[in-house]
Amino acid sequence: MRSAEVSRKTGETDIRIELNIDGTGDSDIDTGIGFFDHMLTAFSKHGNFDLTVKASGDLVVDDHHLIEDTGIVLGQAFAEALGDKAGIARFGEARIPMDEALASVALDLGGRSYLVLDAEFMSAKVGEFSTQMVRHFFESVIQNSKTNMHASVYGDNDHHKIEALFKAFAYAMRRATVIEGEGIKSTKGSL
């Protein structure tokens, strides 16, 4: 089973994540930020990843540390669960509409971290979730999972745009992590 349990405890946050890549989309998410919980639940459901996230932190300051550290731990969980990445498809992409919004994600689990994100938001927050944390969350996941991701979204409603991005990320990750064979998809022989 491709799974991982990863924890991170600092003076600002306490994060514990359990991830099963070969799951059914079951989730148990509690970060203290309602909209973030909703996004992680959508990610789990649409990626068919079983995901437990228990996160607490200095929300009295703002949501930055908790969202960043959750991204770090989620990225580490994917890296651990994928191991040497033998047999995975490696590449994944998805285009997901949500009403007037359309998100596109293409990614490569090839071992090099790079994020290109074309997304602008009109609101400072959706619920208690700071929209500027969208980029930072994905940067944290991408750096710690050693993923290259190109993503974009357009639309008029920030809730729709962010949700479409999380769902597109889920579908792209599902497609990239699926087992297609036995070898490593690289001319180098390793990822």
From TrEMBL:
Reaction catalyzed: D-erythro-1-(imidazol-4-yl)glycerol 3-phosphate = 3-(imidazol-4-yl)-2-oxopropyl phosphate + H2O
Matching InterPro entries: IGPD_sf, ImidazoleglycerolP_deHydtase, ImidazoleglycerP_deHydtase_CS, Ribosomal_Su5_D2-typ_SF
A Gene Ontology cellular-component term: cytoplasm
Record keyword Chaperone present: no
Localization: Cytoplasm
Lineage of the species this protein comes from: Archaea, Methanobacteriati, Methanobacteriota, Stenosarchaea group, Methanomicrobia
Record-given protein name: Imidazoleglycerol-phosphate dehydratase
Gene for this chain: hisB
Pfam families given in the database record: IGPD (PF00475)
UniProt family annotation: Belongs to the imidazoleglycerol-phosphate dehydratase family.
EC number: 4.2.1.19
